[in-house]
Design brief:
InterPro entries: NACHT_NTPase, NPHP3-like_N, P-loop_NTPase. This is NACHT domain-containing protein. Keywords: Repeat. The chain is α/β, with parallel strands linked by helices. Helices cover 57% and strands 6% of the residues. Strands 4-5-6-3-7 form a 5-stranded parallel β-sheet, with helices on both faces. The termini are far apart.
Length: 659
């Protein structure tokens, strides 16, 4: 080392000579909210905008200031490290920050950035000390966890700078200083966000109960979450490993791009894998604490295809994600408990836009809200309204929105009205077929490994699937042996031998569905009455448009439950039985599309108007047979249900599931 060179630690100390000399002049103010005490973070955020004018100091004074700065820095960080023992993830992040800061050189002109950072770290220490008891009660929200992970990421960048060789640091000095300045500013911002999340995220048990009561007035669609019990019932799954890599990478980049469009629309024809991709993205973001809320629309559940439930459900889930947002939303619900029943634009304004803007500085800048299969909502006019208000406000909101749907005119036209800078669009069905087929091939090899298919059979299946993942998934379900005795090899041969000469988009899928039904309704094997029973079960299952209990299906088809279960074994390629075998639903929306289209399904066509009328008549018949006055044998009609002990058991005993 030359005589004129300066050691990294000496350079660092020199740059911090006045870093802490104003500590005694900084104070932490408090303000009272209507329900709880929280730090007044706006004052803290602005307390360091202007520092005192610089002054010349003697070499001896400079040396003393360097030592003071170094000691103060180390003392503050170690105190913060100790106080965060109730937050193990944050303690780890602060530990990484300590090791990264200890030997990083910095230029003199960056003093103010370090000064601001120290103030934020001191304030964070005070906030955590003040609320440490309540933190242990309320725990850590995903929003807080997201901020902590981001601090740890920045700390790792600092440590990487520290671990560079000395000569490398000399050659990259200018770039390093710019990078360090940006890094410190990001840590400063994250510390500010963390203060708000901790201060507004801690309250008493009584307040927690009040908050939950208020949130309950939103009547959220709990089954609309990506990982709800309904997701398990309808067999929603993740992408097979190493498939959809390019698509998922693009979505990952978008979610991390702070300057990109706030709305991303993925469009795709039925069966192209939109929901599986959305589920995989949700799972990935959830692990990284970036997932603010999800609403997975589906025709199989009434609450999950009601467009007026989308905004209240997103607000409810986001309140679980972010405590500051929850606090503001609670005030909204206190003043207007029925806001969740208002028209969609007013819902969006009061439940999302206003609370998000009020706590904008506390929200991590990489949070994503996901709405899947928007085309499956029943009110197309409501869908258009939601998209209109979303695009009106999304550019100014501190969150991103990922939306999937089929390219329905009312959705596509509304989205494409807006400038390209306001939204990103990805047409899933336009991906080069070779890329999609490579993913389908990986999926088929994994799912059919139990029968060791020949190479030519895999290749032929891939060609038949085209770019439709649903073809591959349905073929696998048809080939895979269930409870019914059937040779998987014979079924594979049957699928491969069924071909269509049509050039239409869903021609091969139609042939596959017809093959499944040919097997299930084989006139050479079944008696005519058995075929009639099978049709009843199939048509009722798809016309119900929601998961239906086996007992109810038996009542509706005038069969017994055992008969229904036997019949269902033939349809497990297109219908889904829940884990316990108690409820049945349609495996994919493309199957009802096929069944309700006479040109596609031909002899298996289901006229939904006639079927709907028959179901309605059967419902009236069941009510006529089973309903009676005082059905639960109550002692008096003047008593409220809530005051009767064992009322749930009475309902279970006297009212059948079908009724």
């Amino acid at each position: 080392m030359s005589a004129g060179s300066t050691s990294p630690k000496r350079s660092f100390r020199s740059s911090l000579k006045s870093f802490f000399h104003r500590r005694s002049h900084n104070t932490t103010k408090q303000q009272s909210g209507p329900d709880l005490q929280v730090p007044c973070l706006l004052d803290l955020q602005n307390s360091n905008e202007h520092g005192p004018p610089s002054s010349k100091v003697s070499p001896h004074a400079t040396e003393r200031n360097q030592n003071t700065a170094s000691n103060a820095l180390e003392g503050t960080l170690r105190a913060l490290h100790q106080s965060t023992e109730i937050f193990p993830p944050l303690q780890a992040a602060v530990g990484a920050l300590i090791s990264g800061l200890e030997a990083v050189p910095a230029a003199e002109e960056h003093r103010r950035s370090y000064d601001n950072l120290l103030t934020e770290l001191q304030t964070l220490h005070s906030v955590i000390d003040k609320y440490r008891d309540n933190i242990e009660i309320t725990g850590m929200s995903d929003s807080t966890a997201n901020i902590i992970l981001s601090i740890e990421t920045e700390a790792k960048l600092l440590r990487a700078k520290r671990d560079k060789g000395h000569m490398a640091r000399i050659f990259e000095a200018n770039n390093d200083q710019d990078d360090l300045l940006q890094c410190y500013r990001r840590i400063e911002m994250l510390s500010r966000q963390l203060q708000t999340n901790v201060g507004l995220g801690t309250w008493s048990v009584a307040y927690e109960q009040l908050m939950n009561t208020r949130l309950g007035t939103l009547s959220p669609a709990l089954l609309a979450g990506y990982n709800s019990t309904l997701a398990a019932e309808i067999n929603r799954r993740l992408c097979t490993k190493n498939t959809r890599v390019a698509v998922l990478d693009a979505l990952d980049s978008w979610s991390k791009n702070h300057s990109g469009a706030n709305v991303y629309w993925m469009s795709g024809m039925a069966g192209t894998g939109k929901t599986t991709i959305a589920t995989t993205l949700s799972n990935t973001l959830s692990k990284r604490k970036q997932l603010g809320a999800t609403f997975f629309c589906t025709r199989t559940s009434p609450e999950c295809h009601s467009i007026d439930r989308v905004v209240p459900t997103i607000a409810y889930q986001f309140a679980r994600y972010s405590r500051p947002f929850q606090s503001v939303l609670s005030r909204v619900l206190d003043t207007d408990p029925d806001i969740g029943t208002r028209e969609i634009p007013l819902q969006f304004e009061r439940l999302l836009r206003e609370p998000l803007l009020e706590v904008k500085r506390s929200i991590p800048n990489n949070v994503v809200i996901i709405i899947d299969a928007l085309d499956e909502c029943s009110d197309h006019g409501g869908v258009k309204t939601l998209l209109s208000v979303l695009f009106q406000h999304a550019p100014n909101l501190p969150v991103k929105f990922f939306i999937t749907s089929r390219p329905e005119p009312e959705i596509q036209d509304e989205i494409l009205l807006h400038r390209s800078g306001e939204r990103e669009v990805f047409y899933l069905h336009d991906i080069e077929q070779a890329v999609v087929q490579a993913d389908i091939e990986l999926y088929l090899r994994e799912e059919l490994v139990f029968i060791s298919p020949a190479e030519y059979q895999i290749k032929q299946l891939v060609q038949l699937a085209g770019n439709l993942f649903i073809y591959a998934a349905t073929a696998v379900r048809y080939i895979r042996p269930g409870k019914k005795l059937a040779s998987p090899h014979a079924r594979l041969d049957l699928v491969l031998s069924a071909r269509s000469n049509s050039k239409k988009q869903y021609a091969e899928l139609d042939v596959l569905y017809s093959t499944v039904l040919d097997t299930a309704l084989d006139e050479r094997v079944l008696e005519s009455i058995e075929i009639e029973y099978a049709r009843r079960v199939l048509w009722t299952s798809i016309c119900a448009r929601e998961p239906i209990a086996i007992e109810t299906l038996a009542e509706m088809t005038q069969m017994d439950s055992e008969q229904v279960l036997i019949v269902l074994q033939s349809f497990l390629s297109v219908l889904y039985l829940s884990g316990g075998g108690s409820r049945v639903s349609v495996f994919h929306a493309s199957f009802p599309d096929f069944m309700f289209d006479h040109e596609r399904s031909r002899k298996y066509f289901c006229d939904q108007n006639i079927c709907g009328q028959q179901l309605a008549l059967r419902c009236f018949s069941i009510m006529k047979d089973q309903l009676r006055f005082n059905i639960c044998n109550l002692m008096s009609s003047f008593w409220l249900d809530t005051s009767l002990a064992g009322i749930e058991k009475r309902v279970q005993n006297f009212i059948s599931p079908s009724l």
